[in-house]
Amino acid sequence: xxxxxxxxxxxxxxxxxxxxxxxxxxxxxxxxxxxxxxxxxxxxxxxxxxxxxxxxxxxxxxxxxxxxxxxxxxxxxxxxxxxxxxxxxxxxxxxxxxxxxxxxxxxxxxxxxxxxxxxxxxxxxxxxxxxxxxxxxxxxxxxxxxxxxxxxxxxxxxxxxxxxxxxxxxxxxxxxxxxxxxxxxxxxxxxxxxxxxxxxxxxxxxxxxxxxxxxxxxxxxxxxxxxxxxxxxxxxxxxxxxxxxxxxxxxxxxxxxxxxxxxxxxxxxxxxxxxxxxxxxxxxxxxxxxxxxxxxxxxxxxxxxxxxxxxxxxxxxxxxxxxxxxxxxxxxxxxxxxxxxxxxxxxxxxxxxxxxxxxxxxxxxxxxxxxxxxxxxxxxxxxxxxxxxxxxxxxxxxxxxxxxxxxxxxxxxxxxxxxxxxxxxxxx
Amino acid sequence: xxxxxxxxxxxxxxxxxxxxxxxxxxxxxxxxxxxxxxxxxxxxxxxxxxxxxxxxxxxxxxxxxxxxxxxxxxxxxxxxxxxxxxxxxxxxxxxxxxxxxxxxxxxxxxxxxxxxxxxxxxxxxxxxxxxxxxxxxxxxxxxxxxxxxxxxxxxxxxxxxxxxxxxxxxxxxxxxxxxxxxxxxxxxxxxxxxxxxxxxxxxxxxxxxxxxxxxxxxxxxxxxxxxxxxxxxxxxxxxxxxxxxxxxxxxxxxxxxxxxxxxxxxxxxxxxxxxxxxxxxxxxxxxxxxxxxxxxxxxxxxxxxxxxxxxxxxxxxxxxxxxxxxxxxxxxxxxxxxxxxxxxxxxxxxxxxxxxxxxxxx
Lengths: 428, 362
Description:
The structure holds two protein chains of two kinds. By secondary structure, chain A is α+β, with helices and mostly antiparallel strands. Chain A has helices at 36-45, 47-61, 72-93, 100-115, 120-144, 149-195, 199-208, 256-265, 283-298, 314-319, 323-333, 335-338, 342-358, 362-369, 373-387, 394-412, 417-427, and strands spanning 216-224, 239-241, 247-252, 269-274, 278-279, 307-309. In chain A, α4 (100-115) packs across α6 (149-195). Chain A is elongated and about 115 Å long. By secondary structure, chain B is α/β, with parallel strands linked by helices. Helices cover 48% and strands 21% of the residues of chain B. In chain B, a hairpin with a 2-residue loop joins β5 (153-158) and β6 (161-166). In chain B, α1 runs antiparallel to α3, α2 runs antiparallel to α11 and α3 (48-66) runs antiparallel to α11 (302-336). The interface between A and B is medium-sized, with 13 and 19 residues.
């Protein structure tokens, strides 16, 4: 789907902030009667104490931020307070400062609050409380230096200006988080509409978000590594759902190669099953095939490559579409084979399947299986003993072919459930 | 005789020469003339022709048997010529020593080729005679987990099918009542059938046995194999006297008893400590052993050549020595009569020697 330009950004909000990056440039210095550098020096020397005081005070006043003094939240508040004091000190010293780092920090704090689902008023009130604490400290220092009322007024303006600036950074980050969440919500709802075949809802969402519904779509089912900590980095054209245990990604079929590149490059992805291009109305089927491909790879029935091309495994996907039916047919058609020893069962089923598929001579089958032709003739005699006239019935032959085609890879991968089921039936 | 004949000849010629010279000297000949006659007499009657008549037949016989792969010293020729009984170890004499498959008996007749294939393929991993015989039934297959079970047989997988080949009771099959040695075969945990191997009899063994008998040498067949198998092989080659289940000590005892009854007994087989080779009059074995007579292999067909050559050598010597002695004596007399000069006496002696040697070697 296509997005409008002003919605194309999907950033953390760290780059989209107020144009003011330099606090000191926002004020015209008035004539003061004490050196502000001396005040700044005194303020800086007390940063640790003031920071601790601010953090304790905020955690005490705002219950949402409460926690131990050794906790991570206490540390974060302290870090923000230290940054703000450092910015104020720089402003008082009158030097040129680059407050971009401090701005980024407060913008990220706003973004994090939105992501955590907190009201913005909480962090704003915390900021206001911190401002009061800082002003109190600065006033005490200024009085200690016999600063005049005019000087105090000037310093107050500086502090207020800084607080206002920081408040704006918080709001900016908070708004960015809300925008991203809104976009993600649209993505998820669109994917849900695709997978639930709700064509009407799909087109409504597309109209709402000014997107064009593609004609052909690719659906991928993604399994991440156990220690994955970073989410899959979606493209703006992807639809994502993070429903456990797999991530589902749907994208316009024209974006297939780009999607494959991103899947291959992501180290947090263990396996990704990618469907072939299907009409958008068949997205749900493609999703089912992709998830089944992941299951078959997990069971060892198909190779567990990082990128599973569902088109290469269509036969197995189809054969395993009715697992209950397969199990029942197995018990019904193969009892004498199931009664053989595991080694004999594997050998005979493998040979029978090759013959059913190829109808080749003993030497040709022997070459395929890498055994002697006489071995094949011996196996063929055994197979005839087990199946008798059933091998002359066309219907049975078709069923056997499909059944073995589905079951032999399972058995080779170590799935013993068919035999255990057979044994349980025999013992009953 | 062989050592004494030349000695007698030397003594006789010396005596004749001395007597002749003395007589002529007493008769008034000059000392020079008497001495010449004495020397001529000694030369004419010398032992050289006797030596040739005595030794050349033996040398010729050894040369003859060597061309047939038999090696022996001259002293053993009289012993070989005197044999009237020969005990043959079955393996390698009347048989090649190798076994061959004589019967393949699957439990299901349709499994004949399968039985040959799996048994033959697995026994390529076996290094005993039975395994080597069965292995000739098929090519070597893809073998895994092969294990030789001492005293029982060999097991492993052929193209992933578990197979066992070995003693019938180990495999769980009943051995058919056949001559030979039987192994059972099991495939995929199921008894499959049996394979019977037997001795490969040498193509002309019965002719060789008949020739021995014609020479007056009675063959006896001995073997560690069963009575039935030994009797069967004996019947195939025309030997009626046999000794089955016979270890080396039993064979040695049998030979001692034969000798006690007055027989001159030879033994053909691989010598063993305390075995038959130590009690026989003549032990015949492979070149790699310390037997008195050694052969390229123990083929019974070599034995008539040995006996015939030995007897012919002795007969020739018995005929040539007296004739040569008479001829030497006649020459000596002629020389003693003064009718032969010394050079002529020497030439006559050499001619007689060559003549005796030629007749002895023919």
